[in-house]
Amino acid sequence: MVQQVTKGIKISVETSFEGTFYKNYKMQYAFGYKVTIENQSKDSVQLHAREWTILDSLNNQETITGEGVIGKKPVLKPGESHTYSSGCLLTSPYGAMYGHYNMINLTTSKKFNVTIPAFKLSAPFALN
């Protein structure tokens, strides 16, 4: 698990390897990740948008942007947390992801970014 705190918002990420399959005649490696967003600040905040960078060991890079997470824009009061699960496909058994969430401090109406720490994606059978 990786964790990082930015401006009182703690991001924790756990990853899992979900398996392999063929798509368009290419081997795909499926990974899952579970993210917990915890508000350790004194103000209520809302997650507005996200931006992810996904890398694999073949130098493929993809950037994903969008509103909310899994169709939600959670509001977190001080001490509250929100956990969600998602996944991605890679064309190699190794990779990494990182990014940020666009948040709004509901007390001050100020927007700010919260770092999603880089985390590794690796298929267990490919490890030395």
Automatic annotation (TrEMBL):
InterPro entries per record: ApaG-like (IPR050718), ApaG_domain (IPR007474), ApaG_sf (IPR036767)
Superkingdom in the source lineage: Bacteria
Domain ApaG: 3-128
Name of the featured protein: ApaG protein
Upper taxonomic lineage: Bacteria, Pseudomonadati, Bacteroidota, Flavobacteriia, Flavobacteriales
